[in-house]
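Trying the structure run again after the queue cleared.
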Amino acid sequence: GELMSYATTAALQTGLEPIRPGAHIERIESLAGDASARTFRRVHLSDGSFLVAMSTPTPPIGDGGQDFLAVGRHLQGAGVAVPTIEHTDLRSGLTWVEDLGDDLLENHCLARHPERRPLYRRALAELIRIQHRARRHPGTSPALSRSFDTATFLRELRFFSEHTLEGLFRLGLSGPVRTELDRIFADIAETLATCEPVLCHRDYHCRNLMVQGDRLRVIDFQDARLGPAAYDLASLLHDPYAMLEDDFRETLLEDYRAMCAEAGEDVAPDLEDQLALATVQRCLKAAGTYGYQVIHRKRHHYRRALGPALASVGAQLDALPRHRKALQSLLTDCEERLA
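Done. Tokens:
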């Protein structure tokens, strides 16, 4: 825990009044945040209960409380195991959320962990619910009115060039290399944008899935949008924080296919190809985020995830024969900088 200023405690106490009239704050502790500008605090109340206070910068930077609230309610309505959102105050940027504890799926990722496969099967079950049931669930969620398009995929790939290749690794990209990269990125982006859309969480990995008793709960969903089924699957199976082994990934992919069939949901016939391409795009995007976090936020622990992210890209290159040589050369340069 940490000692909070009187001003912070007073602001939280005031914010608590509409949902817990008369309740008093006994203690406040900061929680580890994600890669966004939001902050999270666990608030211990005098009656022994807990809530999480999520503060979003005002005015919001891209991931405001409004989207969190609307997308959260939409997903909850579709039966997805998201936390209950108790209250949000858009003026102060404060949102009160059910406290799901501290046990991340990340803590259960090691090969010898006995709970690993059942937990990952639960993650796949929630994913299928998001992809299909929430996609069909009626409502005006912002998640249903925005989608991954060529421009979004391309922007994420260029983020990698800017913040990791040129920023963190200081690779001076020559004109021809930059042109070649842009051609490759455009090809990947255009191909992914033509995939049949489902609903995507957009950041579906072991740090955004909480283990709570025998349940798995889904967090950090406010950026959800329509996109390829392979996108979230790539996030989960080729997760730089989890480093799953190839045979376990294959098992989970078979589980996913079987669970989709059981739920009566179609699986794209070219899912394997989609998955290879989505893994390249997703892991380069993640590597861009890590570079940005190291340089601009001084969060140096993100550097550890760069190796696994780039290795996942390297493992997919056989599925991109036209671009394999150029990407392999780029990955070799990156590995030298990481060494």
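Strands lie at 25-31, 39-45, 50-55, 85-89, 94-98, 197-200, 209-212, 215-218, 225-228. Worth checking whether this holds up in the mutant runs.
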